Amino acid sequence: MALNRDFVGRTYPPGAPYEVSRVKIREFAAAIGDNNPLYRDSEAAQAAGYPDVIAPPTFPIVFSLQSGGEALVDPDLGLNLAMVVHGEQRFEYVRPVCAGDRLVMTATITDIRTAGRNELLTVRSDVTTVEGEPVCVTYNTIVERGGAG
Amino acid sequence: MTATVKYDEVEVGQEIPAVDYNVRRLDLVMYAGASGDFNQIHWNERFAKMVGLPDVIAHGMYTMAQAGRFVTDWVGDPGAIVDFGVRFSSMVVVPDDDQGATVRVSGVVEEKLEDKRVVVGLTARSGDARVLSKARAVVQLS
């Protein structure tokens, strides 16, 4: 069934801050097979001008749906999670995510549309430090296969 | 933050040589744990087929991470990426064997912007399928 268009424009406030740890960055880098020393070695990262190890570009996917995730399981939206695949993803960075960051996300459902037999839903997530410093913006589009049929 | 690639030494149309990245079931299990995405289509063959997929498929984000790796290895500093976006255009089916699947990523410098930034267009293929489309990164060079 079609997704509920009333959800477009809804914004979800930040929950508890996400604390970026060196261990999680190392685990993520290992999972993607990336041996870059800036993900593992604090001294190398500091020599490159960062406060501590930085995270790979796609790392924000770990926390970016922390806010707004409840919308996707809201029965009023009508999303069948079993049929969901990832459609598009984009990251705009003010700076790389860094170990020690305490981040909060504000999520907004920016678009719901039909493409062929599928339903597409886009969530924008504005990521800042708890002090309000902008870090990155993520755009996540999911596809509900057959959702429009 | 220092890219090892210099803006003045890069030309529009310049190709970045292809790199092959392997993806096996183990990689998907590791990625599920690291990313928190435990969707069963990425590790459970029975479930994947039940929802109409040919077999277990890689997380789109795993593929995007390989494309990201391709760019960060080229530019030298992961912090040099200022914008990175992709569309997941076809699935990477990962068989249950020792070989898994291969994703071949290549790139081309599409545009030179102001402030020593360039647009890198990315291609990612698995077999005959183009697994990413509209894949581009804006990179800050030195």
TrEMBL record, chain A:
Q: Which top-level group of life is the source organism from? A: Bacteria
The UniProt entry, under Pfam families, shows: FAS1_DH_region
Q: Where is the FAS1-like dehydratase domain?
A: 7-136
| Signal sequence segment | none
PANTHER family for this protein: HYDROXYACYL-THIOESTER DEHYDRATASE TYPE 2, MITOCHONDRIAL (PTHR43437:SF3), HYDROXYACYL-THIOESTER DEHYDRATASE TYPE 2, MITOCHONDRIAL-RELATED (PTHR43437)
Recorded family membership:
Belongs to the UPF0336 family.
Q: What is this protein called?
A: UPF0336 protein ACFFSA_34900
- According to its UniProt entry, this protein's organism is Nonomuraea helvata
Q: What is the lineage of its organism?
A: Bacteria, Bacillati, Actinomycetota, Actinomycetes, Streptosporangiales
UniProtKB/TrEMBL annotation, chain B:
Outline the extent of the MaoC-like domain.
Answer: 12-120
Enumerate the Pfam families for this protein: MaoC_dehydratas (PF01575)
Q: Which SUPFAM superfamilies match?
A: Thioesterase/thiol ester dehydrase-isomerase
Family annotation (InterPro entries): Fatty_acid_synthase, HotDog_dom_sf, MaoC-like_dom
- Report the PANTHER family cross-referenced here: (3R)-HYDROXYACYL-ACP DEHYDRATASE SUBUNIT HADB, 3-HYDROXYACYL-THIOESTER DEHYDRATASE HTDX-RELATED
Its family? Belongs to the enoyl-CoA hydratase/isomerase family.
> What name does the UniProt record give this protein?
MaoC family dehydratase
What is the species of this protein? Nonomuraea helvata
